Write a sequence for this structure.
C-alpha cells in the first residue's frame, strides 16, 4: 500500500491519520479528555438523502458545507456540526475526516457499560448505507482492514469492544441496523474467509 497521503494539508501518518486513506480534514472535532483511553469502536451507517448512495452530501455534511436547499431532508441536518473519524463508501473507498487521537462528533448522547459520552473514548466509522439495505462486500473488506489497523494502534479496542451506534444510544439510534452482518464482519476480523459467494 502506498504511504502517500494524497492531501494538501497537515494530515500525516503517525499523527492519527491512517496511511493509504484519503484524508479530508473536518473542522468538526475536539480534544479528548486528558485521561481518555481509546477503547471503543462504534459502527454507524449514514446516507444523504436517506437511502440514496453515491452523492457528495455526506462529505459536505462533515465539512459543514451541506446545502440545505438541495434536498428537503438536508434542512433538518445542515447546521448541526457532526463528523466521524472514517467514512466508507459503497465501493469500499474510505475517507478519513478526523485524526484518530482527536474527538470526533459521531455518537452524540451515548453510554456504554456505564460510561457516558462515548465520543470521549471511541473511534467512529460510518458506512454509507441504510439500516435495511445490505452493505457491499467492498465495504466489509475495507471495514475489516481499517478495524485491524485501528486495533493495532489502540489495543484496548478488543473484538468485544466493537459496537453499533444503536448499542450506545438505544432507543435513539438504530444504525448500523439489521442489515449489517455482524457475523460476517467478525469473521473477517478473525481472518476467516467469508462463507459462500459474496452476498452483496
Ligand atoms: Zn450513527
Amino acid at each position: 500500500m502506498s504511504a502517500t497521503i494524497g492531501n494538501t494539508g497537515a494530515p500525516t501518518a503517525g499523527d492519527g491519520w491512517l496511511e493509504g486513506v484519503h484524508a479530508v480534514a473536518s473542522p468538526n472535532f475536539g480534544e479528548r479528555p486528558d485521561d481518555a483511553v481509546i477503547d471503543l469502536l462504534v459502527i454507524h451507517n449514514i446516507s444523504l438523502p436517506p437511502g440514496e448512495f453515491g452523492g457528495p452530501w455526506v462529505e459536505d455534511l462533515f465539512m459543514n458545507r451541506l446545502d440545505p436547499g438541495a434536498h428537503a431532508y438536508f434542512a433538518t441536518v445542515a447546521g448541526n456540526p457532526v463528523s466521524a473519524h472514517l467514512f466508507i463508501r459503497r465501493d469500499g473507498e474510505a475517507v478519513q475526516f478526523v485524526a484518530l487521537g482527536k474527538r470526533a462528533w459521531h455518537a452524540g448522547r451515548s453510554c456504554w457499560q456505564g460510561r457516558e459520552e462515548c465520543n470521549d473514548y471511541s473511534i467512529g466509522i460510518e458506512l454509507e448505507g441504510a439500516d435495511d439495505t445490505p452493505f457491499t462486500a467492498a465495504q466489509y473488506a475495507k471495514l475489516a482492514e481499517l478495524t485491524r489497523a485501528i486495533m493495532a494502534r489502540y489495543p484496548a479496542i478488543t473484538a468485544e469492544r466493537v459496537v453499533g451506534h444503536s448499542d450506545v444510544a438505544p432507543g435513539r439510534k438504530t444504525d448500523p441496523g439489521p442489515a449489517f452482518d455482524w457475523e460476517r464482519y467478525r469473521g473477517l476480523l478473525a481472518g476467516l474467509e467469508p462463507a459462500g459467494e459474496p452476498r452483496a
Remarks:
- The beta strands are 22-23, 29-30, 40-46, 86-88, 94-96, 103-104, 111-112, 115-116, 122-128, 162-164.
- Residues 44, 165, 173, 175 surround zinc ion (CB under 6 Å).
- Helices lie at 57-62, 74-77, 137-153, 165-168, 182-189.
